[in-house]
Amino acid sequence: MEKIMTIGSLLRKFRLNEEKTQREWIGDIVSPSYYSKVEKDIHRISAEDLVSLLNYNSVSLLDFFGELNSSKQSKYNQERELMTVISDAYYRNSKNELLKLKEFVSKSDLPNKETDLLYLDAYIANVNNEDLNDIEKKALKDQIFSRPNFDKSKLVLYCNFMMFYDLESNLLITRRIIKQFQGSNDVKTLAIILSVIGNLLIQCIEENEYDATHFLIMAADQIDTKPELFFYKNGILLLKNMIEYHYKAEDKYLDICRIAIENFSLLGMPEYGKELERFFKKQNG
Fold this sequence. Notes:
The chain has 16 helices and no strands. It is mostly helical and 285 residues long.
């Protein structure tokens, strides 16, 4: 059986072909101990570091992923690896990397090439603060609705693309997600679910659909607070108390909102805190 190639094993192959030691290959981009584990597939390298490594060693991104695609058996594995790199580039707001990845996908024969290009277009539009056209929105929407269940990667995609959906669609999809993952103990999955709930609470507040928030808050409250989930829980604390103030107009809810906003600044995220403060003031005068 042909061995499935991973990003770590492919980096090792390219390095050995260049007859370089690990230290020669990585320069000052990552630590030797960390990179050693990347080649062994113990650690996953970020898209930023991967692109830096390839540039440092004059390896084309297209050639690298093209090599990963050389085995028919490995195409699905390549697609999983590629989506991880795409997500990482998106979270770092790297338009140039997303465009390079789109160029590669457009020239590839990946099993889900058209879907991958649709996702890339949505990521790029979001980075550019642009909207998708109606045809692209419908195609993206159909991709989500056509899946009877979500895995973690599709959950991340949906969370990132929620802004392209109307409120009714987001409520329907989120109910399905909450039902599917009810009782999950996987912290990463719970973090994504809390992100989805937070995004949808914001949309409900912006569209003045407060009655639609009750099941979302109940679902968020059922997820136990853990250190890894504090960021998400704190954001939902803010939104929850904004909603409480809408119904009861008591100053104590505004006080809790201000504490939640301040928490982000105290934890080293002042810009995010300011963004939430602007949202808070916009909704509460």
